[in-house]
């Protein structure tokens, strides 16, 4: 029983920092700063796909940030959801600094969620919404989009191929239209690379009459020159 508990605890609160591997800490101060304190900035894909909303990222996708995101999503280190959600909340504030908003996560493939054993994006979206409400922002998380058909693995595909792969694949869940039209939508994801997933999600929202205010991600392209920079 004691060994089983140590194994489970290691997934939720790893003995080593998920970013740099430093012993006896789930996420050290330096890596937390890299994720949450790097400064929110506007990012874009290269090339920019048609239909991509304005995207804000909390950090660049490299080094410790990449390691933390992979540990949470692929290794199921669920204790990292809180710092990642806090970072995401900072990016959301840049998209829509106040008022009522609906945080809509970009849906993952059902097969991927089943293999991982958890929905990583939905988890950090819930944390981000709680963080925003704590600051007096009326934010609600709603996983109202889904992948309506099977898609190929996006890894290894070019930007154009990713757009084609996801074209028409993301749809609103039954009955989601009223909710999506009730408040400005901020699309959220853990990572933006080519922007194909955000484009597909934006089209799904707009197809039912919703308005996309912008998109927020934990990490985006590291080398960006466009847009300003805000403190998280």
Automatic annotation (TrEMBL):
Residues 178-223 form the Phosphoribosyltransferase domain. SUPFAM superfamilies: PRTase-like. Pfam families: Pribosyltran. Gene3D superfamilies: 3.40.50.2020. PANTHER family: DNA UTILIZATION PROTEIN YHGH. Belongs to the ComF/GntX family. This is ComF family protein.
